[in-house]
């Protein structure tokens, strides 16, 4: 009799575990379907945490999707966390040591810099407002960048007032115009901070670098000494730039009309690195975005577009494993890609036509199709990193299964 009861308990234990696991999987997939789908949404800005699987995206389309979206599983699923600070968000940045601390820049005429201490749910205007011009207008923010070596430092690129350096530490609140008046009137398109704290700025007037280290005096005419901006001799105007996270000397720049350039001396000299990028006769080949893998200075991604008259047409998304010497096309770009971000081995491309994923995600196999890459993750694998609903179901399942296996009969049956 005891053996029969034991067999029944074991069978009931296994049944509860199976049903509970199935319920958790269904809940995970149901929640995934309920989460936001950004594949066709206009993404204004995209950023990822320095470590981990957290990404943020800002949408602004006036069709009910406006706001801040967060992914905590490397971009597989997204959830709207807040409506944003107001105004059109032009840039996002995450604190290097705190993925819940988020900064946003807008093109509004007031309160253009905002901070969120809770991952985009609530926002407060920065007490360090940008100074107004003599005409009374505040410059819009075009780009944000943080320094991993100085987590409290936020760099702000503006539309017509150059670059500002903000110290966000409460004990040292303050700001300065980076480099004094050297780039004070520049229209800054993008800022990139290297692992050695060099700050690169793409402007309408060319590519510049701010080196905080002492520099030798220029050999002949022009140039700036240590602590100032230096113009870099890229053969054409830059449209994108990326610095290898583990190698500050390796810099990649995308041109507005030709292709990709590589520098192994922090931008002092350049060489072409665009074999395999598809060109179209009569059209300029613009590199709209670049990204370098965190763990491999030779692994990079590039997004292209074609200049046709006064317009631009989307190109493709390409991958290189040898420092740009050779490129392989991963797929066509759904729109003009403005941001590329590596996360878990894959790269995310943001455009006005949506967010697309290309490449291989480290913990989930990807199946390639004509529009890019889609997750083909094992269903059981999702239980290794459960969301809140799945965790609750699993806890209840284990409790019931344990009760079925070890509980006493009289706990659930009345004695007669």
Offer a quick outline of the entry.
The chain has 416 residues and is mostly beta strands.
What would your notes on this structure say?
This protein is 12% helix and 39% strand. It is mainly beta and 416 residues long. Among the domains are: 1-34 and 386-416; 237-384, YVTN repeat-like/Quinoprotein amine dehydrogenase (Methylamine Dehydrogenase, Chain H, 7 Propeller). The strands form eight sheets. The protein has a four-stranded antiparallel beta sheet, with no helix packed on it. β23 (311-320) and β24 (328-332) form a beta hairpin. α1 (2-34) runs antiparallel to α2. The longest helix has 33 residues, at 2-34. The protein is globular. Residues 29-35, 215-226 and 362-382 have low confidence and may be disordered.
Keywords:
single chain; 416 residues; mainly beta; Methylamine Dehydrogenase, Chain H; 4-stranded antiparallel β-sheet; 2 helices; globular
**Largest sheet, order of strands side by side?**
1-2-3-4
Q: Note poorly predicted spans.
A: 29-35, 215-226, 362-382
How is the main sheet built? 4 strands, antiparallel
The CATH class of the domain at 237-384: Mainly Beta
Q: What is CATH's topology name of the domain at 237-384? A: Methylamine Dehydrogenase, Chain H
Separate helix tally: 2
Shape: globular
CATH architecture of the domain at 237-384: 7 Propeller
CATH superfamily of the domain at 237-384: YVTN repeat-like/Quinoprotein amine dehydrogenase
Task: Compute the CA-based radius of gyration.
Answer: 25 Å
How much β-strand is present in the residues? 35-45%
Structural class: mainly beta
């Amino acid at each position: 009799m005891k053996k029969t009861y034991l067999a029944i308990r074991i069978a009931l234990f296994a049944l509860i575990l199976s049903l509970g696991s199935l319920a958790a999987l269904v809940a995970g997939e149901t929640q995934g379907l309920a989460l936001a789908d950004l594949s066709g949404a206009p993404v204004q800005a995209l950023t990822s945490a320095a470590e981990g699987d957290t990404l943020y995206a800002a949408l602004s389309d006036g069709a009910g999707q406006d706001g801040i979206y967060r992914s905590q599983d490397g971009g597989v699923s997204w959830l709207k966390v807040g409506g944003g600070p107001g105004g059109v968000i032009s840039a996002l940045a995450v604190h290097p040591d705190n993925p819940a601390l988020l900064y946003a820049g807008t093109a509004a005429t007031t309160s253009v810099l905002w901070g969120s201490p809770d991952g985009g749910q609530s926002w407060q205007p920065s007490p360090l407002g940008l100074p107004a011009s003599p005409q009374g207008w505040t410059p819009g923010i075009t780009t944000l960048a943080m320094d991993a070596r100085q987590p409290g430092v936020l760099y702000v690129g503006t539309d017509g007032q150059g670059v500002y350096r903000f110290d966000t530490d409460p004990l040292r609140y303050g700001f300065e115009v980076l480099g004094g008046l050297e780039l004070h009137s520049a229209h800054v398109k993008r800022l990139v901070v290297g692992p050695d704290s060099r700050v690169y700025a793409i402007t309408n007037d060319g590519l510049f670098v701010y080196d905080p280290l002492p520099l030798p005096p220029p050999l002949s005419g022009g140039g700036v000494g240590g602590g100032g901006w230096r113009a870099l001799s890229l053969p054409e105007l830059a449209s994108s730039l990326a610095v290898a996270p583990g190698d500050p000397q390796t810099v990649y720049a995308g041109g507005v009309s030709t292709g990709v350039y590589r520098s192994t001396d922090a931008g002092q000299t350049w060489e072409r690195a665009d074999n395999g990028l598809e060109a179209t006769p009569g059209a300029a080949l613009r590199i709209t975005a670049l990204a370098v893998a965190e763990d491999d200075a030779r692994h990079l991604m590039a997004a292209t577009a074609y200049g046709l008259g006064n317009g631009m047409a989307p190109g493709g998304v390409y991958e290189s494993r040898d420092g740009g010497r050779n490129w392989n096309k991963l797929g066509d770009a759904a729109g003009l890609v403005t941001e590329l971000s590596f996360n878990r081995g894959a790269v995310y491309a943001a455009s006005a036509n949506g967010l697309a994923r290309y490449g291989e995600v480290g913990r989930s196999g990807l199946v390639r199709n004509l529009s890019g890459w889609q997750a083909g993750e094992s269903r059981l694998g999702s239980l290794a990193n459960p969301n809140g609903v799945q965790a609750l179901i699993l806890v209840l399942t284990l409790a019931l299964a344990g009760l079925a296996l070890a509980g006493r009969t009289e706990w659930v049956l009345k004695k007669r």
